[in-house]
Amino acid sequence: MARIPYAEKGHEAEGATAVYQQLESGMGVVPNVVKLLGHSGPATQVMGNMLDVYFNQLSLDARTREIVYLTVARYNGCDYCQGHHVPAGKQAGLSDSQIQQLDESGFDSTDFTDAERALIRFAYETTRDVKASDAAMDAIKSHYDNQKIADITYVVASANFIQRVGKNLGVELEG
């Protein structure tokens, strides 16, 4: 149950309307996590920008993006994010078994490539410890260029941000 009311369309804060319109146009819905921030125009604008970068501007393919995001969501126990990103992960080619291994068990799983195992470890350690170990960083660097590393780090950080908003404010899956 949401811990504050959702700022439904037409009741959002000044500055949030353009984000609501953009999301509704692109996704067909204003996600509930955005509606929780919809009481603050500036916070909603930041969230809208984060989502636009995530879905439209990163150099990462969908599979890489979803491995990273889902690893964070599974560690944080974010049912809302898993509700959205498990289907996206499957669409990006992840199997149910692979999705279940997006945790420490994925570090050595033969169901993933070396590069994917490096992603899982980096996302997991960064979420758990804030800073990934040198070994996790070295593994990422052996598979990805600096732009991709920056984009991967962005996905981890934005996932943690979104999940802390959602979990603290009691976000519920749409519909």
Topology:
Elements: H1 17-27, H2 32-37, H3 41-57, H4 62-76, H5 79-91, H6 96-100, H7 114-129, H8 134-143, H9 146-169
Radius of gyration: 16 Å
Secondary-structure element pattern, one letter each:
HHHHHHHHH
The low-pLDDT segments are none
Mean pLDDT: 97
Note the main sheet. none
Please state roughly what percent of the residues sit in beta strands, choosing from under 5%, 5-15%, 15-25%, 25-35%, 35-45% or over 45%.
under 5%
- CATH topology-level fold name of the largest domain: AhpD-like
Name of the CATH superfamily of the largest domain:
AhpD-like
Task: State the shape.
Answer: elongated
What is the rounded distance between the termini? 13 Å
CATH-level-2 architecture of the largest domain: Up-down Bundle
Write up this protein.
The protein has 175 residues and is an all-alpha fold. The protein has two domains: 17-57, no CATH class; 62-163, AhpD-like, CATH 1.20.1290.10. It has nine helices and no strands. It has helices spanning 17-27, 32-37, 41-57, 62-76, 79-91, 96-100, 114-129, 134-143, 146-169. α4 (62-76) packs parallel to α7 and α7 crosses α9 (146-169). The two termini are 13 Å apart.
